[in-house]
């Protein structure tokens, strides 16, 4: 498809996105303003675009594009004399034949429409009377996202009538029709007199300073973009979260709402409008999210902790500022791509005055008077220079420092000299290095150098020797620089770059250090990895995952903590053991709760013929002996997760969970897992996991154990202070 459909069309084509269209139009607007080129934007909306597709024209277009006979027959089979009937008030009409339009809901329809529209776009590009704005190497006349057409018109008095002629001619052949009532014009740099003349040529509606395009408000002045788009979105998010705040959502469920609903909306704008955003915007977002996660109480965990990845001890709560950074880093990776085909890059090259692949690595002072301000290029560079060292993305200078298109190193480097180092079209410092040393090609007798090559080589070495901080040129490439050096567009680039930023943050959750103090022992990274893996991946039941994370993160408030934050609080354990109710005491060292864990230990032994070590590291932090994969399949982990989840049900109460509560909770987990069985393989794994539970539950030994459990609780209830 990318080879059949020109880069002007970005809708539903692999490797192309809506941001390619919006970024291109933004750059065209700014370039017209800088050059003072008279320009307007003409947005055209097709009337029932997919329904009006003429099949005869469609198949003729496919044949002209060289689509094979086999594929044509497959497509023709989908459109072979289809019929339809209309139901009106319960009555069905007679069948009638359908002769135009693409199939609704068919994944092939958007691709067919893109091919169907290509003759129109080709004709417009070839029409010399339809003008556009000139970039560095190309003229940009229009941008298309499926049937949404955006024209960048620089000579409107001639161009607009020509566009109408092209549309009329194409419509007579294909059935395509423009909805004039929904088509709009946005003046960018025309004078009032020019606008008055154009109004007489067309009946299209004129916008007052802004125009909606692909979900984004375009404005004729850069300073309006933030308020019209991000300010409006923030107000919408505030209303949505205020409404959802009253709903019965779990704690982790609220975080998932931010991930699944809010994050995509912000990410779209971050990519579609690559502009500078004030720090106050992100502070307001963080405050909004915090109030949503903790609707009725103050936050019990730092936002920074929750924003860590699950492997690092957090809950992967989106850090919107980091996602904003990742969206701009994606643009830099795009700049470094050898053949991305992204049309907006040509316009941004014109705005920067330097090849985009070279711009990030050139010293910042040299760019100050070359890159046009208030552009997507200047925004990305400002963010890049503010975060490149902070997140270990790169150092200055970098091994990717360009040796051509570099204002700091003027003059030519002969092509023959470049070819001695690399056959790549770009020439960077990394190409003249080998094993951390500069390559001395003058000593290589197999590749003799001409006088000119030798002169250029020594001039190059002199430049690099005098370069401040040149020792960093010899270092290995950072992970981000490796992405850039590949010269390819990244799949899932936002996620990949967000993870790089995350890994550069060396923050360690405070609860990890607190557990070491509570237990008076160090906990290795390997043990914390097991704790976090079993916390988040030990079960697919979200309530148990939430309980596990709450335990390790000190989410639950002990009597001692509540006494500290209230004036008249009592720090004593509420189980009437006359001891101070610290967090570890409530969960483990209280004489009454130890009876509960002893009973759980006995049950685990009966189920598995294995007695886990009796300590809080095992029962509270899940640091059980055995492999993580084996524990995920074991009944031991499931019973332990259910037993831990019952303790908060008796929070602020002297009572302990009963055996019937435990059986009920485990059976609920069993039923939930059974509903997730989807194949014979997973069914066998399910039966293997639950075999010992199912067979033990009905034995006489288990019945006797339930009696022992009840007797132990009765004894505790009779003498509350005794173990």
From TrEMBL:
SUPFAM superfamilies found in the cross-reference section: DNA/RNA polymerases (SSF56672)
Cross-referenced Pfam families: RVT_1 (PF00078)
PROSITE patterns named among the record's database cross-references: RT_POL
Domain Reverse transcriptase per the UniProt entry, residue ranges: 1-218
Annotated InterPro entries: DNA/RNA_pol_sf, RT_dom
Protein name: Reverse transcriptase domain-containing protein
Organism this protein belongs to: Leptobrachium leishanense (Leishan spiny toad)
């Amino acid at each position: 498809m990318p080879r059949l459909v020109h880069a002007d069309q970005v809708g539903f084509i692999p490797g192309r996105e809506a941001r390619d269209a919006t970024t291109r139009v933004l750059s065209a607007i700014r370039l017209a303003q800088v050059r003072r080129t008279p320009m307007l934007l003409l947005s055209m909306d097709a009337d029932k675009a997919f329904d009006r597709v003429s099949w005869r024209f469609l198949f003729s277009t496919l044949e002209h594009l060289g689509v094979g006979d086999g594929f044509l027959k497959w497509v023709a089979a989908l459109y072979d004399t289809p019929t339809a009937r209309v139901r009106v008030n319960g009555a069905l009409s007679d069948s009638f034949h359908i002769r135009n339009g693409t199939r609704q809901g068919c994944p092939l329809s958007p691709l067919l429409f893109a091919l169907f529209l290509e003759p129109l776009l080709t004709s417009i590009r070839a029409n010399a009377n339809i003008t556009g704005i000139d970039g560095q190497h190309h003229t940009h006349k229009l941008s298309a996202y499926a049937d949404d057409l955006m024209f960048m018109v620089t000579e409107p008095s001639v161009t607009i009538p020509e566009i109408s002629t092209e549309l009329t001619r194409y419509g007579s052949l294909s059935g395509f029709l423009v909805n004039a009532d929904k088509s709009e014009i946005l003046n960018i740099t025309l004078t009032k007199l020019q606008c008055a003349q154009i109004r007489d040529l067309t009946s299209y509606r004129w916008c007052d300073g802004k125009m909606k395009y692909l979900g984004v408000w375009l404005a004729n002045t850069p300073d309006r973009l933030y308020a019209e788009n991000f300010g409006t979105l923030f107000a919408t998010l505030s209303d949505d979260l205020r409404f959802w705040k009253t709903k019965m959502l779990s704690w982790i469920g609220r975080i998932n709402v931010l991930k699944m609903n809010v994050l995509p909306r912000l990410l779209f704008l971050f990519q579609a409008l690559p502009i500078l955003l004030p720090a106050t915007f992100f502070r307001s977002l963080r405050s909004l999210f915090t109030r949503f996660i903790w609707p009725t109480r103050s936050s019990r965990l730092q936002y920074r902790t929750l924003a860590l990845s699950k492997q690092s001890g957090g809950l992967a709560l989106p850090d919107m500022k980091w996602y904003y950074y990742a969206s701009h880093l994606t643009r830099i990776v795009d700049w470094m791509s050898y053949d991305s085909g992204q049309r907006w890059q040509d316009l941004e090259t014109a705005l920067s005055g330097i090849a985009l692949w070279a711009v990030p690595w050139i010293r910042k002072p040299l760019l100050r008077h070359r890159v046009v301000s208030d552009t997507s290029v200047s925004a990305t560079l400002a963010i890049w220079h503010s975060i490149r060292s902070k997140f270990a993305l790169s150092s200055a200078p970098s091994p990717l420092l360009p040796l051509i298109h570099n204002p700091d190193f003027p003059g030519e480097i002969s092509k023959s000299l470049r070819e001695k180092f690399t056959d790549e079209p770009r020439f960077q410092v990394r190409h003249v290095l080998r094993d951390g040393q500069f390559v001395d090609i003058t000593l290589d007798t197999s590749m003799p150098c001409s006088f000119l090559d030798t002169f250029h080589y020594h001039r190059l070495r002199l430049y690099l020797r005098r370069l401040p901080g040149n020792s960093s040129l010899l270092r290995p490439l950072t992970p981000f620089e490796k992405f850039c050096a590949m010269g390819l567009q990244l799949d899932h680039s936002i996620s990949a770059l967000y993870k790089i930023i995350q890994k550069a943050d060396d923050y360690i959750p405070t609860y990890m250090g607190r557990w070491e103090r509570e237990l008076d022992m160090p906990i290795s990274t390997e043990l914390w990895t097991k704790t976090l893996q079993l916390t988040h991946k030990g079960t697919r039941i979200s309530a148990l995952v939430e309980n596990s994370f709450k335990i390790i993160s000190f989410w639950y408030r002990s009597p001692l903590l509540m006494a500290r934050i209230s004036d008249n609080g009592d720090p004593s354990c509420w189980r009437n053991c006359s001891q101070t109710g610290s967090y570890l005491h409530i969960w483990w060292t209280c004489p009454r709760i130890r009876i509960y864990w002893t009973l759980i230990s006995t049950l685990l032994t009966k189920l598995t013929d294995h007695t886990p070590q009796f300590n809080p590291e095992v029962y509270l932090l899940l640091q059980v002996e055995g492999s993580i994969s084996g524990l995920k399949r074991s009944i031991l982990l499931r019973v332990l997760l259910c037993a831990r989840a019952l303790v908060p049900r008796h929070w602020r109460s002297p009572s302990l969970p009963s055996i019937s509560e435990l059986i009920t909770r485990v059976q609920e987990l069993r039923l939930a897992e059974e509903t997730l069985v989807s194949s014979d393989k997973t069914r066998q794994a399910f039966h293997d996991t639950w075999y010992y539970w199912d067979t033990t539950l009905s034995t006489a030994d288990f019945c006797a154990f339930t009696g022992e459990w009840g007797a132990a609780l009765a004894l505790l209830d009779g003498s509350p202070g005794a173990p």
